[in-house]
Amino acid sequence: MAERYGGKFSPNASPVSPGGRRPRRSRLGARVNFLFILPFLLVLTAFQQQPVGMAADLFAFGILMLAAWLTREGLRAEQEFEARRVAKRPAIPRKIFASVLTGLGLAVAGYAPETPSLLNSSLFAILGCVLHFLAFGPDPLKHKGVADGDAFQTDRVARAVDEAERHLSAMKEAIRGAGVSALNRRVDAFAETAREMFRVVEDDPRDLTGARRFLGVYLLGARDATTQFADLYARSKNETARSEYEALLDDLEGSFTARTEKMLLDDKSNLDVEIEVLRERLAREGIKGQ
Q: The whole model's pTM is what?
C-alpha cells in the first residue's frame, strides 16, 4: 500500500517536536565510527609479522574495539543524562575507561618485538589516553537536579522516569518491526508528549504520586500493545489493527496531555495559595507591597 513521503522538506513536515522542543542532535557520528574502523589496520598488518608481533597486534585490536564500544555507550549515557532535568550520574564512567583502554591499546600496538622500547610504548599510551579524553571528554561525574535535602524524593523520580524511558525505548524498537515509517513518527510524537510529563514530574517530585500510573502501568500497556501490533502488522498488514493502534495512541496522548496540564494547573494553584498566605503574613506585620 502506498504511503505518503514524510521527509523534512515535505509540505506537512514539522521541524519542531510536539513538545515545542527541537530534537536533540545525536553525538554518535563520524568520530565514533572512526574508532571502530581504525583498529582493523592492525588486523591487516598482524599476519605479516612474526608470531609475537601478530599476537600483539591482535590483542591491541581487541582492546581498541572494546574502547570504541565503551566510548559509544558512554556518549549515549551522557546524551540521556543531558536530556533529563533530574538524573543520576552513570554508574560506570565508560568514556574515562575508554580513554585508558585507548592508551593501552596503542601502547600494545606500538610494541616492537625486534627493538622493544618502554619509552615508545609509554608515549603511545599517554598520547592515546590524552587525545581520546580531549576528543570525547569525561563522563558526568555528579548527579543533576538532586538536592541534598531532597535526595530521597529525587531518587524516586529518577527511578520512575528511568523505567518510563525504558518502556518508550521498547515501544520505538518494537514499532520498527511493522516497517511503516509513519508509525515510527507517530510513536516518536507520543514519546515527546510523554516526556513533557516526565519534565513536569522532575521539576516538582510531589507530582510523582499522580503521575505514577502513567509512567508505569499505562506505558507498560502501551509497550505491550505496540509489540503485539508490530508482530501482527508485519505478518498480515491488517489495516483495521493499524487504525485501532493509532486510535490507542491518540487516546494515550490525550490522556498524558490532560494529566500534564492538570499537574501544571495544580502547581500554579499551590503557588497562588503560597503567595496569598505570604501577603496576609506581610499585612499582619504591617508591611505593604509597593
A: 0.55
